[in-house]
Amino acid sequence: MSPGGVRHWGKFGAAGLLLRAPIGAGGVAVLLQHRAPWSHQGGTWALPGGARDSDETAVHAAVREADEEAGIKAADIQVRAERVTAVAPSGWTYTTVIADAGKPLPVEPNMESVELAWVPEHEVDQRPLHAAFAAAWPDLRATPARMDTGECPQTDIADLAATLPRTVDLGAEFVWLHADPEGPGERAVLLNPPYPAERADDSEVAAAVSAAGDPAAEPGAAVQAAARVLGIPRSRVLGPEA
User: Fold this and answer.
1) Which tens digit of pLDDT belongs to each residue from 151-201?
2) CA distances for 239 relative to 22, 99, 138, 234, angstroms
3) Residues 64, 74: Cα–Cα separation, whole Å
4) pTM, full prediction
5) Please, which residues bridge with residue 49 across strands?
6) Residue 183, Cα to own-chain centre: how many angstroms?
């Protein structure tokens, strides 16, 4: 119980899973839960989730709840990030765990759901959302971006083919990065290290993006020029250099 009598579910906090999957042509869908009428704000749409156990991380709790409420198996998804998306005066928190699946997985709703649905990401906010999810959604939604893997170093192409499409965590925002040339979003390029965040030689970073149309571009930010390019650090997509 928070001051003022507001009740929050989970003595140790709660967590939910925001699961994305590709739907073709560079598109992406999010798994949403239509909440049972008896639940808090029943009839609204939100994410599979629930209370954390005392010995659980937020990731463990979110993945477990998705299994219990939707039949989503941990082996079929890849966790990409987590965000604390609600904090109560009592210290209670809700953490949203962001993950990807290789395709829209079959789902098995339990008693907590009226239904489960894979909803195109750009249509999520067209549904009546749970108030807390609606408040968090603008910071959780992913901006689409398309990458021409032919522009990447040969050494990266196989790794990109194995990982794209996927959610990329840029810190301040999320990107749904795909390789469909006709798909939605701005053009994206990989920026190889060093990065400005590491305060290495900025001239090397400038050279990495000059071909994209703006040598002053910062990684993870859209170039405000005719080229309209999104520079994404390589390590955010393929992991740190060995």
Assistant:
1) 888 889 999 999 999 999 999 999 999 999 999 999 999 887 644 443 334
2) 21, 16, 26, 7
3) 8
4) 0.84
5) 16
6) 18
